[in-house]
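Two proteins were folded this term; both appear here.
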Amino acid sequence: MPGHHLSKSHVAAWAVHGYTALGAVLALAMAVFIVEGTPAAFRAAFLCMLAATVVDATDGFLARKARVKEVLPGFDGRRLDDVIDFLTYAFLPLLLVWRAGALPEPSLVWLVPPLLAAAYGFSQVDAKTPDGYFLGFPSCWNAVAFYLYLLPWPGWAALLLVQGLAVLTFVPLKYLYPSQGGRLNRWTNILGALWAGLVAWLMWHLPTEQMPHRLPASDHPLLGLGLISLAYPIFYLTASWWFANRRNKNSSD
């Protein structure tokens, strides 16, 4: 009977939710590669991490086009997205950091604060502000894991980075939300696209025989480009902090 057939709008809405759910499949693949624990497997895990980020960056646009909230009001795509994001942006990247030995021992202890901070950040109702910013460090532990794995950090510097970002999750500073409007966000998107291309290239060329963070600087094949690619995260953090401080100062005047 005609009433039993799904309409085109329902098919489109479920297709978008299925696309979002690809992130869960990629998370499973990441977990398998991390458990395997070889340099080649870590390279594959980072490529899965990148693919999951692409899915997360594009499914919102598709959801709006398909009007998923209106067509499928009984299915919460945002809740699905949040579960997958916690896995792919926080839990699994931190698990990779531990498995790869990218922090000094006892590395498991050092990873508890960022894990709890990420759980706190993902649970905050006001994690995204009404005026279009992230509030507190936006738990981009996938990028942190990549740089801890890619670059030969001194142990103290790696610890300072991880614990410092964990603390910043609780500090109510605003961080740029690139998908929102505004000139600064446009520049953030342009520079972010260039950075993403460079990071994708670096991930593709990660060594499959040795872990790069354990190589001496003189023998590190990706060190120069890896350091250059840090310019964008530094820009993002600096622009966010500067803008937040300027807004806070203007509002208090």
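Next, the second protein.
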Amino acid sequence: MIKFFGKCVINLWLSIRYLFGGNSRIFHILNQAAAISFDSLVISLVIAFVAAAVIAIQVSKQFLMSGAEAYVGGSIAIVMIREIAPGFVALAIGARAGTAISAEIANMQVTSQVDAIKTLKVEPVGYYFTPRIVASAITVPMVVMIAEVVGILGGLLVSYATIGLHPARYTHSVWLWLNARDIYISLFKAFVFGVLIALVCATQGYETRGGAKDVGESTTKAAVLSTVYMLVADFIINIIFYL
């Protein structure tokens, strides 16, 4: 794990140097943005909506019994923005797009396409990693923002359907509890998660050697490692901003 973390740091540095060296092309970044986040948008929003609906079902009746139903909206908004939306969306994108990144780069490695790039005097880490890292870092926060809105609206619908909570009381609670700081931290989390998804999965794919079987194993490892790294990063960010 320590050795792999060191490789990730080195690859991140090479990617940053490649980016600021003016070698990246906006066309490549846009292609990766579509493959990473746009193609994962529907599943991310479905997950956010269902998660908010489940939370609303769990808390609505309990709040109603204690006479605190006016705070349902605020509770759901805080949970969605602080944790559920960035965490679940990142996991969904990592499972879908992260594994695809790992498989693609691993396949290039085992079929000697990476060696061919080296013969052209092109830095392979910068060439393969930079568009994916930049695209993921920019677009994952965008998906998270949309997921937060969808989640809060999903909580509103379920609260109205289960306990008849008026939308005005729900939204008033949301605005009362909502803090701009929470939104900034949520987007920062999404940014970090986006970088980790692309960096960890691309590094795992780049380190693959062997054949088709190794590509499959590398893809599985990429999914596990990206999840672990995101959970650790989430823990550290929460300690820094909320402790």
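Residues 39-242 form one domain. DSSP finds nine helices and no strands in the chain. These notes refer to the second protein only.
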